[in-house]
């Protein structure tokens, strides 16, 4: 008997086996699986088909351009997702540890940004520039935040207004980065959307090499974004406290 929702995994073959749960955040149920005897990762969530089509198309594009990302494995009928389930390649590696590792991460993120200029927005999402004028978008609801906090967030995002946009990973923390001697892999694209690339590049040790002013702009905008997208847990309250008063 398959758990509720996981019945769709059979569309990848009758021999599919769930192995063990993996850390996948609060939005998804993520497991290592075996498909045709090969280790892979399966994710079950509540995203719409349009949202999953956007994400899987992005991952296929980045893989074809030579980046290391989880590549969607087609079901038996060729679909890249089915009933909220996505199956992807399993990637090895460990989190970045040294300043050089983080500089390599910055370079990889910049390649993502370069390869996705002009990419359409993820269905239902809003960019930081959009949120200067609207209150909601996917997980963001500015109406739930204190008005003074919203003013601070919008002031931070306004400093990025007018810049070129692209796909941002959205959550390049060490858990979502797998480094080996040969390459940097970015996993967990659940927060990816179209926005200003600086939001991805607030990294340990200023690995992206911003000057002082650019780092301040990016750090304030990033803190505001994380406060808004997670509101109102302890982490989001902490991040909002980092955004300067107007």
UniProtKB/TrEMBL annotation:
Keywords, in A-Z order: Kinase, Transferase
GO molecular function: kinase activity
Protein name per UniProt: Ser/Thr protein kinase RdoA involved in Cpx stress response, MazF antagonist
Species for this entry: Paractinoplanes atraurantiacus
Domain Aminoglycoside phosphotransferase: residue ranges: 19-220
Lineage of the organism: Bacteria, Bacillati, Actinomycetota, Actinomycetes, Micromonosporales
């Amino acid at each position: 008997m398959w758990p509720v929702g996981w019945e769709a995994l059979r569309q990848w073959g009758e021999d599919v086996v769930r192995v063990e749960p993996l850390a996948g955040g609060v939005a998804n149920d993520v497991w290592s699986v075996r498909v045709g005897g090969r280790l892979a990762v399966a994710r079950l969530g509540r995203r719409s088909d349009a949202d999953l089509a956007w994400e899987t198309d992005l991952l296929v594009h980045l893989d074809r351009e030579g980046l290391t990302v989880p590549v969607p494995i087609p079901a038996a009928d060729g679909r890249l997702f089915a009933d909220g389930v996505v199956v992807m390649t399993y990637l090895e590696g460990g989190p970045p540890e040294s300043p050089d590792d983080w500089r390599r991460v910055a370079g990889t993120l910049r390649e993502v940004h370069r390869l996705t200029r002009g990419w359409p927005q993820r269905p239902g999402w809003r960019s930081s520039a959009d949120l200067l004028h609207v209150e909601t978008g996917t997980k963001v609801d500015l109406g739930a935040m204190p008005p003074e906090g919203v003013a601070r967030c919008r002031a931070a995002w306004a400093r990025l207004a007018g810049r070129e946009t692209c796909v941002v990973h959205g959550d390049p923390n060490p858990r979502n980065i797998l480094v080996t001697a040969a390459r940097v892999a970015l996993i967990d694209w659940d927060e990816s959307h179209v926005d200003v690339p600086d939001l991805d590049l607030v990294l340990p040790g200023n690995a992206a090499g911003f000057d002082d002013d650019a780092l301040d702009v990016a750090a304030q905008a990033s803190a505001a974004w994380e406060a808004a997208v997670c509101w109102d847990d302890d982490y989001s309250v902490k991040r909002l406290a980092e955004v300067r008063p107007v």
